[in-house]
Specification:
89 residues, mainly alpha, 3 helices, elongated
Length: 89
């Protein structure tokens, strides 16, 4: 069996489909990434005693990037805060 024969068999099993246009995929992917990043940022905000709604600060241009970066470095509240116990122990 040659490489061409194997390739022809794969093409029969997995039909090639035209990739989605970038104009069509961009709004959907932006929405999915935005919502998923807010879902991660909200509990992180609660880790240091802020409301989860503070994650929406990331929408603001420039300030949002700085805030998202700060979420990585701000340590959480030690012990219990108004949103519950320290999950890190």
């Amino acid at each position: 069996m040659g490489a061409a024969h194997v390739e022809a068999g794969i093409r029969r099993l997995v039909p090639f489909q035209r990739p989605a246009q970038s104009e069509e995929a961009t709004p959907v992917s932006t929405l999915v990434l935005g919502v998923s990043s807010w879902e991660v940022a909200a509990p992180r905000c609660r880790d240091f005693g802020w409301t989860g709604w503070a994650a929406l600060i990331t929408i603001v241009p420039y300030l949002g990037w700085a805030f998202a970066l700060a979420l990585y470095f701000i340590p959480g509240t030690l012990g219990y805060n108004r949103y519950g116990p320290d999950v890190a122990g």
